[in-house]
Specification:
By secondary structure, this protein is of the alpha+beta class. The protein has helices spanning about 25-30, 40-50, 60-65, 90-100; strands spanning about 35, 70-75, 80-85. The protein has a three-stranded antiparallel beta sheet, covered by helices on one side. Strand 2 and strand 3 form a beta hairpin. Helix 2 crosses helix 3. The longest helix is centred in the middle third of the chain and has 11 residues, at about 40-50.
């Protein structure tokens, strides 16, 4: 029904395991685009590669996810194409509004 109404659901999570429900295919037809930003653990990086449809055992790819800096991510489009991209927020007020970083005292 969402597609017929042109609804665009957005799933956002800090943990890849939240998006992996059972088999990866269970969400594959529901998710059009996926952004995977930097990871902090090798296990999460492997799960992120699985979510993207890439080889979770590829040490080079896991290392690249661990090395991503703010604004950099791997992007998978609705056709399955994957590319490293840089996301820049043009309006600083939006960055402040969506920030989950605790304020400095």
């Amino acid at each position: 029904m969402g597609r017929s109404e042109l609804a665009v659901p957005i799933i956002s999570t800090q943990l890849v395991t939240d998006a992996l429900i059972g088999d990866r295919e269970s969400l594959e037809n529901l998710v059009g685009a996926t952004f995977v930003f930097g990871m902090r653990s090798d296990g999460e990086a492997a799960r992120a590669l699985t979510l993207l449809g890439l080889d979770a055992d590829d040490k080079r790819m896991r290392r690249s996810l661990l090395d991503l800096r703010a604004g950099r991510c791997l992007f998978r489009d609705h056709r399955g194409r994957i590319e490293a991209i840089q996301v820049d927020v043009v309006v600083p007020a939006l960055l402040r509004a969506f920030s989950t970083t605790p304020a400095r005292s």
